[in-house]
Amino acid sequence: MSKDYRTLHDPNAEYTMRKLSAETMGLTAREGPRDVEITDVQTTMVDGNFPWTLVRVYTDAGVVGTGEAYWGAGVPELIERMTPFLVGETPLDIDRLYEHLIQKMSGEGSVEGVTVTAISGIELALHDLAGKLLGVPAYQLLGGKYRDEARVYCDCHTESEADPEACAEEAERVVEQLGYDALKFDLDVPSGHELDRANRHLRPGEIRHKVDIVEAVTERVRDRADVAFDCHWTFSGDSARRLAEAVEDYDVWWLEDPVPPENLAVQREVTDATSTPIAAGENRYRVTEHRRLVEDQAVDIVTPDLPKVGGMRETRKIADVANQYYIPVALHNVASPVGTMASAHVAAAIPNALAVEYHSYELDWWEDLVEETVIEDGAVAVPDEPGLGVTLDMDAVEQHMVDGETLFD
Ligand code: MG
């Protein structure tokens, strides 16, 4: 037995190491990070291109964790409702606290929907907090990293969204001027051939128009960018199959949500029928729902939204299940820099990450919300700072708060 080995297993040495670590973190009155207790949870909503619900978890050590929940009516109220279930708990037991909240809120819809969204916001803040208390980046809490950078794809819009040439021009601009090599455009845009959108049927002219958009964009940025197209759950199974087949020659990155989310059998039939990769998942919650999507091989790519689906660890679990079926993960994301950075940590920590979405390029102050640079050259360089590695700029938060909101303590 070497001297080093003995030292590592000397209980007194371990105590000294814990104490030193605690002192480094400013926890001089405590034996170590496990001694820290949650004292409060607060939210503030910021008026971005979506209402971003920022969440902070406070402790008696003065260390604060910051997270974010996807939007949804009642999310701040649900977080307030859950606060008593967290006060007095150690913030290091992220998994146990998550299951505790799921259990305590089971009568209020913790299987899916806004209750899971609210829990997600807390779960993100706990990862930031635990990382800060332990002095490690959040990706380390998830098992370490596969990559130093998370690739980012840019969700693109134009005022003439139905004009194939305008979409191609925008693709060119985003690739050459903004520096992205991965894009997404909406494909559920009017073609002028619609008679009745409620029946979900695509007429031949509608399909030709969508093919024109796909052709114009993919040919314009060919070999410079991967391009996905989003259909927002609009079409019937038959129409989705015809559309997916019609764009097969253009080698799209993926076709997203061509059919409504409820019926897995239809989803699987569409995916089986085409060589165009089919993606879905942003409207599904927790590993439970994604497991069914993946086990049925109803998708080629799964697209959980991390601040909505259950949080960072839940997304890691989804990625692990997907990986059993060799299915990659593209992280849907419409969040502020906080939620985006949480997605980047997970994208770094899972083997099967494709990319993280960025959905706010119209908003020139998006990155002002935090002190750090988040997206650069079409990627997030995942930080090695403790926790998520982003710091809210409270002046920016205050400037952009939803009317009637109050700033964090
Ligand atoms: Mg989508």
Low-confidence stretches: 1-18
Number of strands: 12
Full CATH superfamily name of the largest domain: Enolase-like C-terminal domain
Amount of helix = 40-55%
Residue fraction in strands: 5-15%
Q: What is the H/E order? A: HHEEEHHHHEHEHEHEHEHEHHEHEEH
Radius of gyration over all CA atoms, rounded: 23 Å
- Number of structural domains: 2
Bound molecules: magnesium ion
What is the rounded distance between the termini?
Answer: 52 Å
Largest sheet: 9 strands, mixed
Compact overview of the structure:
By secondary structure, this protein is an alpha/beta fold.
Provide an overview of this structure.
By secondary structure, this protein is α/β, with parallel strands linked by helices. It has two domains: about 5-135, Enolase-like, N-terminal domain (Enolase-like, domain 1, 2-Layer Sandwich); about 150-385, TIM Barrel. The protein contains 15 helices and twelve strands. Strands 4, 5, 6, 7, 8, 9, 10, 11 and 12 form a nine-stranded mixed β-sheet that branches. It has a three-stranded antiparallel β-sheet with strand order 1-2-3. Strand 2 (about 50-60) and strand 3 (about 65-70) form a beta hairpin. Helix 3 crosses helix 5 (about 115-135). The structure holds magnesium ion. The site of magnesium ion has 4 residues, from loops.
Any chance you could write out the topology, listing elements then pairs?
Blueprint lengths: L2 H6 L2 H14 L13 E10 L3 E9 L5 E5 L5 H12 L7 H11 L9 H21 L3 H4 L7 E7 L8 H13 L5 E5 L17 H17 L5 E5 L6 H10 L8 E2 L7 H10 L4 E3 L5 H10 L5 E2 L3 H4 L2 H13 L4 E3 L5 H13 L3 E6 L20 E3 L12 H6 L10
Parallel strand pairs: 4-5, 4-11, 5-6, 6-7, 7-8, 8-9, 10-11
Antiparallel strand pairs: 1-2, 2-3, 4-12
Helix pairs in contact: 3-5, 4-5, 7-8, 9-10, 11-13, 13-14
The structure holds magnesium ion.
